[in-house]
Amino acid sequence: YGRELMRGHRLVSRREADYDRRTLPARLSVIATLVLTALTVTALTACGGADGQRSAATSASTARDGSPAPTVVGETGQQPHGGPAPPELQGTWLTKYLGTPARLYIRANGFAVSLGVAGSGQIVVRGDEIDFFGSAHCGLSLPEGVGRYRWKISGDRLRLHAIGKDACGGRASILTHGAFKRVG
Questions:
Q1: 72 to each of 75, 78, 84, how far by Cα in Å?
Q2: pTM higher than 0.85, yes or no?
Q3: Please, which residues bridge with residue 169 across strands?
Q4: What is the per-residue pLDDT for 9?
Q5: Phi then psi for 160, rounded to 5 degrees?
Q6: Cα-only R_g, the chain
């Protein structure tokens, strides 16, 4: 007695109990990393997750002939009204999402988000409103699956604010988490 402690229904030595106290923070760190990774993958899947076929930087923009890429997810619905992204909105934008670098690529008619895995879809812009849609992993056909946002650029920073609720779950949490800085 005195040198032994109860763990569950068995006695353990104080040395074994001290070892558990020293290794617990490392175990929790691994578990927290796994949970964060799972949440990130879930959020990206909801907003256009990885299809493994194209890179995030190239998959968002247009078909090979320069025309807007066809909508696969909402071929039966009508895409939102609007036009291509203005030049000042097009580019590569970077932010930190839960401590991880996240890139938003905006092209004339498409977007991609890269946060460990890549998700992509189409966009249209009307004034200070940008609509995200056509993400294969969103699972919603048009007119559902459209996320509407207000955009504002100040200097080299882009901010997006949701207009209503985005039907594609995790997309809003990434796009509105904080300011994006232009990096390309």
A1: 6, 12, 18
A2: no
A3: none
A4: 54
A5: -120, 135
A6: 22
Report residue 145 as tokens.
């699956």
Least confident window among 9-13, 103-107, 134-138, 141-145: 9-13
Angle at 21 between CA 18 and CA 27, to 5 degrees: 135
13: left (phi over 0), alpha (psi -120 to 50) or beta: beta
Higher-confidence position of 37 and 110 = 110
Alpha helices in 47-155 (DSSP H): 56-59
List the alpha helices (DSSP H) in 1-107. Answer: 14-46, 56-59
Q: How far apart are CA 111 and CA 105, in angstroms?
A: 5
Amino acid residing at 152:
K
Report how far residue 133's alpha carbon sits from residue 14's, in angstroms, rounded to the nearest whole number.
58
Alpha-carbon span 102 to 81, nearest angstrom: 28
- Distance between CA 48 and CA 133 in Å, rounded? 9
Collapse the DSSP code of 164 into the 3-class scheme (helix H, G, I; strand E, B; otherwise coil) and give the result: coil
Contact 116, 130 (CB under 8 A): no
Give the span between the Cα atoms of 146 and 166, in whole angstroms.
7
